[in-house]
Amino acid sequence: MSPEPTESALLADTPVDAFESSLVLVSNRQPYRHRHEDGEIAVDRPVGGLTAGLDPVMQQIDGTWIAWGDGDADAEVTDENDCVRVPPDDPGYTLRRVWLSDDAVDEYYYGYSNQVLWPLCHDLVGKTNFEDRFWSRYREVNEQFADAVVQQADGESVVWFQDYHLALAPSHVREALPETTLFQFWHIPWPTWDTFRVCPQRRELLDGLLANDLIGFHTERYVENFLDCVDACFESATVDADSGEVRYDGETTLVRAFPLGVDAERIGRLAEERDEAFWESFRDKYDIPEESRVAVGVDRLDYTKGIPERLDALEHLFETRPEWRERLTYVQKSTESRSDIPEYQRLQAEVDERIDRINDRFATETWQPVVRIDERLTNPELYGLYAHSDLALVTPVRDGMNLVAKEYVAAQADNDTDDGVLVLSRMTGAHGELGDTAVTIEPYDAHELADQIEEALTMPDHERERRMDALKESVLENDLDTWLASLLGTVQGLRRATDQQNEDRDRQETKS
Ligand code: F6P
Q1: What angle (nearest 5°) sits at the alpha carbon of residue 500, between those of residues 499 and 502?
Q2: Does residue 329 contact residue 288 with C-beta atoms inside 8 Å?
Q3: Does ligand 1 lie within 6 Å of residue 187's CB atom?
Q4: Which residues of 102-126 are buried (b: 16+ CB within 10 A; e: fewer)?
Q5: 264-478: same fold as 7-31+100-260+481-511?
Q6: Whole-angstrom Cα distance, residue 225 to residue 366?
Q7: 422 in Cβ contact with 471 (< 8 Å)
Q8: What pLDDT is stored for residue 47 in this prediction?
Q9: Measured from the CB, is residue 337 less than 6 Å from ligand 1?
């Protein structure tokens, strides 16, 4: 474990191509999945920013990525060490798969990860389900991941854990590999102590995480919440809120905010290169009239995303301001998610029911107020949809960051379409960076949200442009590369400090 880091060692950003350590990345979700299709083995990629954003990094560094092999043909393509080289067309790194039984998936992934930690961290304690079997299995699977890490890493490696599925794995790895640099990025919010304290396993979770040398969150607020929880939970811990350092169990962990960004330049380019024919056929297919403005919402179907609340606001708008009928179409692009969990099934039914009701109430012969698309869009199609939409409605009731908000801004890069307006919930991590120039909304207030949608639709051109210019500047400046360089720079600084300490120790031993 690292000695106390010096500030100067941590300040230098490290671009991916200058990262000098061997990297083992660990996540629940894998970047490539092999499955049977029409008698052949096909490969697909999961929806989601985490794997898409980190895959190019791994291709550049050529490290090892450890993840759950959830494809029905995954085991057929791996070697005797459960490894396969990916991307399949042009291999650049090793993917090591961890095999989970159906019960393990049920209790560790659908159970503890997504019925305890997910709602707890999103401040939705009423949706938690603390079943004992979930916890036992979470511990077991974390050990399984840790065993795989210990086989792939050594004392000089850097191991990067992703997210809330793996809170306990770092302490197991630390026991086996005391010299390895461990860090974790927590992609969801960290709640206040008042919320976190309800968790029966709060001490074990913090103990597991504090085996890392570095823990990253999206915002300063989550860092503060985490430090408060450590302070309140462990009398023996010393927490320095200014430097973000925790001394616990004889070791130091640095806790910092690294706001995740998107590959803004690439998104802007793809939006510019979009195929206009797609947009024409999209309008035709869904009967979106020429004169109708378009608002867009793109979400995984999750109760944190505020989709029913957003639909209530639209219903209120069409009800109280009939002049917007046929002049505004809302496009909801949804991705089904975690459907084995009853809360998610309820959410899906609620969203369907609201969309049907709005369309039943207000549709005319030539127009429907809400267009729902479930099919997968290619990136150029999605960014084209963003570029042509007058508004993006990003209204989560709680969200660690929300990359849709940033992608929408990045896709407004050209001059052929008018700039759009970003309507953004105060409850997202992205609001900290974009809240000054987006239209800020409170997600539970349907009437106010309806007013703000109207305000956004009637915003004067110069104001719309002014706001979008400021948003673009922020999204371009704090993009994916900035996030990576600052995270990898910090961890590289810690790694060097450990190497230096080891060298000094060896020198001392030789002298004596
Ligand atoms: O926001 C957390 C997160 O893990 C994302 O990184 C990811 O895109 C999303 O949830 C998808 O979750 P799952 O892996 O459960 O489908």
Answers
A1: 65
A2: yes
A3: yes
A4: eebbebbbbbbbbbbbbbbbbbbee
A5: yes
A6: 51
A7: yes
A8: 73
A9: yes
Question: In 3-state terms, what secondary structure has residue 273?
Answer: coil
CA 69, CA 74: separation in Å to the nearest integer? 6
Strands 23-26 and 64-68: parallel
DSSP 165-200: GGSSHHHHHHHH-TTSEEEEE--S----HHHHTT-T
Confidence (pLDDT) at 9: 46
Check if 49 has its Cβ closer than 6 Å to any atom of ligand 1: yes
Nearest to 491 by CA among 20, 17, 58: 20
Q: Would you call the peptide bond into 369 cis, given omega within 30 degrees of 0 as the criterion? A: no
245 three-state secondary structure: strand
- How many helices, marked H, and strands, marked E, lie in the chain? 20, 18
Which two three-digit tokens encode residue 393? 């409605």
- Residues 6+ away with beta carbon under 8 Å from 272: 413, 414, 416
Write down the pLDDT at residue 500. Answer: 86
User: Identity (one letter) of the amino acid at 236?
Assistant: S
User: Measured between alpha carbons, how far is 67 from 46 in angstroms, rounded to an integer?
Assistant: 12
Domain ranges of the chain: 7-31+100-260+481-511, 264-478
In this prediction, residue 53 carries a pLDDT of 84
Residue with tokens 């001490």: 203
206: CA distance to ligand 1 center in Å? 21
Helix (H) or strand (E) holding 450: helix 446-457
The CATH number of the structural domain formed by 7-31+100-260+481-511 is 3.40.50.2000
pLDDT tens column, 359-384: 999 999 999 999 999 888 888 899 99
Cα 394 to its chain centre, rounded Å, is: 15
pLDDT for the residue 321: 97
Most informative mutation of 25, 26, 29, 338 for ligand 1 (most atoms within 8 A of CB): 29
Q: What are the tokens at 496?
A: 């060097």
Q: Which CATH number fits the domain 264-478, given the four candidates 3.40.50.2000, 3.40.980.10, 1.10.3380.30, 3.40.50.10730?
A: 3.40.50.2000
All residue ranges of the chain with pLDDT < 70 are 1-12, 415-417
Q: Whose CA is nearest to atom 6 of ligand 1?
A: 50
Cis before 87 (ω within 30)? yes
C-beta 50 within 6 A of ligand 1: yes
